[in-house]
């Protein structure tokens, strides 16, 4: 299993994260347990900002809350000078509970409800990324009613096919997100926006997908958006100043993944944007990025306790743990791959190939296929790395299994990000029928 951030192996062969042995964390907080490396999260946030600071260029880095959203993570983003990208009332509420400046929050999403838009306007969010024609009229009506105005971006589907899983590819023409570039929907949207003085169009947005390892898709998207900038500014007298290239930078889950380091890829994104805009004679815009996964994924490790084994001679050995698709549904959703280790015997060489199963009543409840491990025994502590993004945020109560706790570790100290859910918590909103 690859180690990230402050993770290291102690002399006794035990994994430690943030200078805390994982057995101590498991004993204190129970399992399954999400463990987050605070110093690593902060370093990832800073890595996105350094290329812009060195080049003295205007920028905004908005942490995409969908990857992992808690009050504590929003507090960290705030302290690191980040913006936030939210996509729901719940994410916005969480950000505000963290004391986040609403003017440094942008709201995204393809089907924002009237309730969510009213909440965003009332809260004073700094930017709304408008996704469709319905939203133009709905947002304008809400702003007119409240006698307010608001900066917006138009989300563009630039027709760029990101080399990623089809379920996390979002920039192609056939997508539920954004105005289609090829059919001229952007120009139609601009004409609609200009009918409403409450809407201040300041730029364009695109997001071509997720888990992307190189800059080529962004290069094409930047060129197509720069071309639209040139056309719209000359034909519609617009003063556009913001380009949002979204997020989607990939991370290493297994040795098959070969991501580009954040600082290098960010510098390349700056370069392709400069090239695209200079080719149309347009000044460099305020460049906005929305990373989520690449900030928190590798900073997260999930700890489990091993339970039962099932050996099928000449077929497969299953090792079951006390979690599963309820705390990490990504393998079940789109075949995501992970690395695992016996967390208290990191020095031992693998002696068997096993598949790590969850405890849910689903054949698809698997966490890792064909993991190479030392002999896994009941009571062993198993660690799965790179589980910081889209694990807790996608967790469920299937089979009425409570969601795990999440803990933040740093320099020998641990703080709860999220307390462990109880069975009482799950029943709290249930209604008892009258006899």
Automatic annotation (TrEMBL):
A GO BP annotation: lysine biosynthetic process via diaminopimelate
Binding-site residues, substrate: 293, 330, 334, 362, 390
In-chain residues carrying the UniProt-annotated modification N6-(pyridoxal phosphate)lysine: 66
Top EC category: lyase
Swiss-Prot/TrEMBL cofactor(s): pyridoxal 5'-phosphate
Cross-referenced InterPro entries: Ala_racemase/Decarboxylase_C, DAP_deCOOHase_LysA, De-COase2_C, De-COase2_CS, De-COase2_N, Orn/DAP/Arg_de-COase, PLP-binding_barrel
Domain Orn/DAP/Arg decarboxylase 2 C-terminal residue range list: 33-388
Domain of life the protein comes from: Bacteria
Binding site for pyridoxal 5'-phosphate: 248, 290-293, 390
Entries under CDD domains matching the protein: PLPDE_III_DapDC
Protein's pathway: Amino-acid biosynthesis; L-lysine biosynthesis via DAP pathway; L-lysine from DL-2,6-diaminopimelate: step 1/1
Keyword Amino-acid biosynthesis (UniProt): yes
Positions annotated as active site in the UniProt record: 361
Primary role: Specifically catalyzes the decarboxylation of meso-diaminopimelate (meso-DAP) to L-lysine.
Protein family (similarity comment): Belongs to the Orn/Lys/Arg decarboxylase class-II family. LysA subfamily.
Oligomeric and partner information: Homodimer.
Protein's name according to its UniProt entry: Diaminopimelate decarboxylase
Naturally occurring in which organism (per UniProt): Sulfoacidibacillus thermotolerans (Acidibacillus sulfuroxidans)
Taxonomic placement: Bacteria, Bacillati, Bacillota, Bacilli, Bacillales
Designated gene of the protein: lysA
